From TrEMBL:
This is Copper-translocating P-type ATPase. The lineage of its organism: Bacteria, Pseudomonadati, Pseudomonadota, Gammaproteobacteria, Pseudomonadales. The chain crosses the membrane at residues 176-195, 215-233, 245-267, 273-290. PANTHER family: ATP7, ISOFORM B, CATION-TRANSPORTING P-TYPE ATPASE-RELATED. Coiled coil: none annotated. Pfam families: ATPase-cat_bd (PF12156), HMA (PF00403). GO terms for cellular component: plasma membrane. One of its GO terms (biological process) is copper ion homeostasis. Keywords: Cell membrane, Ion transport, Magnesium, Membrane, Phosphoprotein, Translocase, Transmembrane, Transmembrane helix, Transport. SUPFAM superfamilies: HMA, heavy metal-associated domain. It is a multi-pass membrane protein. One of its GO terms (molecular function) is copper ion binding. InterPro entries: ATPase-cat-bd, HMA_dom, HMA_dom_sf. Its main location: membrane.
Amino acid sequence: MTTLNCFHCGEPADGEPPITLELQGQQRHFCCQGCKAVCQTIHQEGLTGFYEFRTEPAVTPRELTRSELDRIRELDHPLVQQAFVAPVKAGQEAQLLIGGITCAACIWLLENHMKQQPGVQSFTVNHTTQRARLVWASDKARLSDLLIAIHELGYTARPYQADEAEQALKAEHRSMLIRLAVAGIGSFQSMMLAFPLYFELVSDLSTDFVDFFRWFSLLVATPVVFYSARPFFTNARRDLLSRHLTMDVPVAIAIGLAYSASAWVTVVGGDEVYFESVCMFTFFLLLGRYI
């Protein structure tokens, strides 16, 4: 049975009854009503080019809760806006932090969608920082309505606060450092264990010692694969679901196959294991992304 994926976000669309929508003469399947509603909005605004140009799947949208709506409405209060809204010649200006952006097509979609909203004078998004600059006429639109318009596409928007952004950046930086450290320690340890095999010293070691080195190497490589290399597998799964291949796919396949084959040889028996290659490959890839 062929598995259908959501046309919008790439997740499995196997619900019963099926959620479908006819677009440009083709029947499209969706995983939820939220994705269908977003797709309808994109189609009605003439922005279907988003689906042609995107290189990553869109995030799965979710409905705002009552408490979330109340918090957004509170942003209309003048006293609250003093913290992040500044008057400009064209109206009011606010810096926003946008969540859910996966590729450049998301920015194109957001900017063109917001330009169609009443009162919006300007809306630009920085892909690197995912910060948006919104200029709007406060006598024609409320800020909360414009934020809700962003949520209608499945993205999130909240006032940008330097302290909060700095904390998020530090948390991401810390997480990457930990992954890099685990991979680095794993590479060092696995290389030490592989040293006798590199210099053909196996004949001088008993079978028990060789098995011990392999099992210990498996123990060392496991956190490297399942923790340090997790971003590669996460990105590869997302790319496969959206049928847009990036370098994360072959990287994840290489790491997964080398680790699995080495684990199989360790358990069943065989000639070669590649735990040190897995660890070093992961380490240098993470190092390249970090710097």
